[in-house]
Structures are given as C-alpha cells and as structure tokens.
Amino acid sequence: MKLKGLRWWIITLVCLATVINYIDRSALGIMWPEVSKDLGLTKEDYSWIINIFTITYAAGKFISGKLYDKVGTKIGFVLSIFFWSLASVLHFFAKGAASLGIFRGLLGVAEAGNWPGAVKNNAEWFPIKERGLAQGIFNAGATGGIGFEVAKRLGKDGYTVVLNGIQPEEGTKRVEELTAEGITAEFYNFDVTKENEVTDNIVTIGKKYGKIDVLVNNAGGLGGRSRFEEMTTDFYRNVMALNLDSVFFASRAAIPFLKKGENPSIINYTSNAGWTAGGPGAGIYGTSKAGVHAITRALAKDLAEYGIRSNAVSPGTIDTPFHAQIKATKPEVFASWANNIMLGRLGQPEDVAGVISFLASKDASFITAETIQIGGGQALGI
Asked: How far from 210 is each of 175, 248, 249, 262, 365, CA to CA, in Å?
C-alpha cells in the first residue's frame, strides 16, 4: 500500500531528527554548571571542548556526505543516528576534560550526518518547486553562517551583541558559545517578517540598553525558486517580506534608539542578484535585494541629519549552509563556482564579518549610502 503524501511524512521525520540533533548538541551548555562542578572543569576546558566539537562536526560533513553517496539516505540516516546516539551515551562515562572532549568529538562526527542526509533526501523526494519549503521544514531553527560570524566579530570589537532568530534552542547555544569567548550576548526570539513582533522586541532592547549603536539586518534568503508564470502571490510576498520588509520594520523601530547611539549605523545585506536579477527562478529574490540596495541609500539620505549612517554589503558566493543543497547533491558544480571568481576561491563568513566590523567602526565614520561588494571580484565576472 502506498502511503499518501509519503514525502511529507519523511521530511517531518527528518525535521524531528534535526530538532533532536540541535537539542543534543546544545545540552552541554545548559548542563555545564553541574557538569563542570562534577568533573572539576573550567571555562577554558569548556572552550576547548566546544572547539573540538566544532572541528569534528565540520570534518564529519565530508565523511557523512561520501557515506550517503555510497549507501543511500535510508541506511545513511540509520548509521548516523545510531552512532550519534552511541556517542551521547558515552558522555555518561566521562571522567574529565580529556574523555569528555573525545566523546564530544565523536558526537560531532556522528551528528554531522544529519545535514547532508537531509539535503540529499530533499533532492530525492521533492520536485524543484517544493524544495524551498522542504528545506525550510528540515532546517527550521538553524542559526549560523555569516550572521553568527558577524556577531562574534562585533562582540570581540567590544559590542554587547543581541542576536535574533526563530529557533530559541539554537539561539541559546550561540549565546553560550559567545559567552565562552568573553562576549556579552543575549538572544531574542521573534520573526523579522512580522511587523508587531519586530517593533515590540526592538523597542524592548532599545529601552533596556538606552541606545542602539549598530543595527545589522542579516535576515534573508532565497525562499525557493519559481518562474514568474507559475509564481504564487504567497511565494512573492514571503520572499519580499523576508528580504525587504524585514529591513524596513527593523530600521524603523531602531531609529529612535540609534539617535542616542555612539557612531550609529545601519548595515544591510544585499546581493549580486540585486544587480543581475538572479538566476533561473530567482527573479523575485533579485528584486527584493535590489530593493535593499535602494532602501539603504534612502535611509542614508533620511538619517544623515542625525549622524546615522546606512550602508550595505553585497556578499558573493560564501561557503555557508545557504548552499547546502547543491553542495550535497552536486559537489562538482559547487566546487566549479570558484572558477568564476577572480581570486579563485569561495568566500568565508569571516570575510563578510571583517567588512561589517569596519563599517561599524569609527574608521568608516565618513562612509554612508554605499554598498560594498564582498565577492573576490565575482560581480565583474572573468
């Protein structure tokens, strides 16, 4: 008997696995006060253990990606979940920093299989027009990539960092990671496409600190691909809301507090797609990013009298989870992208974070209404 809507049942199970995956990896941060007391560990030990997990998690993606290609998604998921469950159990036997670090490393390798497996699963079970939604379901809650690197860099520059997202567990984990590095940070859970949520939370943040020095509008995404003829109004509105409405809502709410800030500025994210109008099926994404380019300049004009600057960055191809699907399903295509970049490599989140750090600094106090390309010359082509 064929189960109706089988692929949706499958992606729901993948989503559940992803939720467990994130809970599993963030549990140590929540339990650290008791764990450190029981095992006699320090904050320095915590930093090392977090770094071990991060390194092995990254390495595990290469291993698990190859595994899924050889054995398929069904067996691959079974093996991945089995080994990360086993690694979790082994934590019970930790006696000190060394053994806990080893077990966290094993957990990192095993848990890494969830991402390439989920992406490969989406490509196998969903037609192109549904993959954006499927990807969103499995990845509901992942915070990271460029945004987290920017938060880390600004925190090291001395800012108190306030993160935003719609996955509180992941937000808590990120705050713990920043705190372990000596950065003051907190997380607010709200949807940047919802006007009232944005306004209420930014006003709360502004009142708490008495000012806002820098607003970084990092939220955005492709949202899927759709040609204009078959595009639904809901799809159009969702992409515009995520990439453009969010900038308007957040900037408007922050302005009263930016007026009280030190060297205040707004930094937005546009894209090469804002100039090229995007690739096949990404026309509305390109349109929304062109809108971000325009609103950046409009904000600069409107706010100059208050000394508030407004600039944007335009990242090229940055190696982040944004490209996870094609990286997992067509690695040769992903690798070839570097050939179209003058500097011969893909960008890293740290490349973007460095530019944003500069734009937020006093060294950039005479820069406004500008958009800086961060693409290794990609926008000009070769």
From this structure: 21, 21, 19, 11, 22
pTM: 0.63
Q: Are 289 and 245 in contact (CB under 8 A)?
A: no
Give the CB-side neighbour count of residue 166, counting CA atoms within 13 A.
13
End-to-end CA distance of the chain: 54
State the catalytic residue, choosing from 120, 152, 173, 289. Answer: 289
**Which residues, 6 or more positions from 215, have their beta carbon under 8 angstroms from its beta carbon?**
250, 251, 254, 258, 265, 266, 267
Q: How many other C-beta atoms lie within 10 A of the C-beta of residue 247?
A: 26
Please indicate whether residue 285 is annotated as part of the active site. yes
Report residue 231 as tokens: 């595009």
Place of tokens 């944003």: 356
Structure tokens at 288: 């929304």
Who wins on pLDDT, 294 or 41?
Answer: 294
Which sequence spans correspond to the domains of the chain?
A: 6-138, 145-380
Domain range 145-380, CATH class: alpha beta
Measured CA to CA, the distance from residue 352 to residue 6 in angstroms comes to 40
pLDDT digits (tens, 9 = 90+) for 255-275: 999 999 999 999 999 988 888
Task: For residues 143 and 250, give the distance between their C-alpha atoms in angstroms, rounded to a whole number.
Answer: 18
pLDDT one-digit tens code per residue, 150-166: 988 999 999 999 998 88
Active-site residue, from 46, 57, 285, 327:
285
Q: How far apart are CA 318 and CA 57, in angstroms?
A: 19
Rounded distance, CA 282 to CA 276, Å?
10
Q: Is 289 a catalytic residue?
A: yes
